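HOLO CASE FILE
Compound: zinc ion
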Amino acid sequence: MINVNKIPGKCDVCNSDCDDLTIAELPGTPLHVAYCAPCIAANAHPFDLLVLQVAMCGGADAVLENVSVDYIPLIHDTLDHLGRSLQEFEEAVNHCKQHLQTELAKDKANVDNDNTTSTGDAPGSTQSGHAAAVASEVQD
Ligand SMILES: [Zn+2]
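Model generated. Tokens follow.
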């Protein structure tokens, strides 16, 4: 827990209204999250962010296989606190992995496309021409 600011709002973990949220870094990420006191006491973190983080660690079959040992209690504490099952978590991670792989494949296809259909124009030349036209319209 790095930043501690007591402010009112919704807890990012349990979604309850709270008047003394603590804003703190999600372990292992640069993200800051709003926690209510019971979620901090339970070592609980936002379900969807844990899903994303574990999905990005890889591991097709055993979801927790490639996750840092330090991270596993944090996942179990979160699931216990939110009343969600490990099976539900694993299904969400696998769904997220499939989505990430689909998006990565699309990005790769786009990059390959850009490389093969290049007309030799400088990248962004059309866009900067348009920006120059807009800038001149604004000046007139
Ligand atoms: Zn909470």
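CASE NOTES: Residues 7-105 form one domain. The longest helix spans residues 86-116.
CLOSED: yes
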